[in-house]
């Protein structure tokens, strides 16, 4: 099993419509065939602690069987379309892959 977690830090000056479009396009990643689990969200409203980062806007966690499935996810047309249509909206993307 491989867990692929991505944090998106959007540009501060994007419109509400662009933010909504980003969320819609991001959710489409959950329809990619070779994934075993997909979770999407934004920072939880938990009590602040020094170790918690709430500066990101959206996060996804994708669970796949192995590195080969991860690599297939990366080149899936849905994933590539998301990047092409949304990359202009983010300042930063941080990825953590865990097996």
UniProtKB/TrEMBL annotation:
Protein name according to UniProt: Dabb family protein
Domain Stress-response A/B barrel, first and last residues per copy: 2-98
Pfam family membership, one: Dabb
